[in-house]
Amino acid sequence: MVHAAASELRVHVGPVSAFLEEDERTVVKVGDREVLVLAVRGRLFAIGNRCTHLPAQLRRGHVLPESFEINCPVHMGRYSLMTGEATELPCETPLPKYAVEVVDGELYVFVPDTPLDPPRADLQSHAAGSGRPAGLHTNKEAK
Question: According to the UniProt record, where is the region Disordered (predicted)?
């Protein structure tokens, strides 16, 4: 069992059965964080939903199940789902990686109880006017 640190929030995401289907993706908004939750080859992962190179939504990216990686849908940079590390240029900065826990069939994600660093001004112009919804989203809504 994972225990939340004093500076972490334990966020209930839903029944784990809803996340075990391959290619099912859910974004959970916690404060200023967007957490992408997905299962690959039977393993659950929670990472930041925004590419660190440009603010593209990774929930729309292609998953490489053999290497547990996800591509940015804009420029095909790549990240490890296991560590959040950038594994393919132009991505260089790692994604936030979040611990997951299943208790009595329910999925929880542990998110730091501190704000993210302020977004860079050069990235704000890309995100402005995107009309993206807040809250909980699935990949079905993204299609």
Answer: 119-143
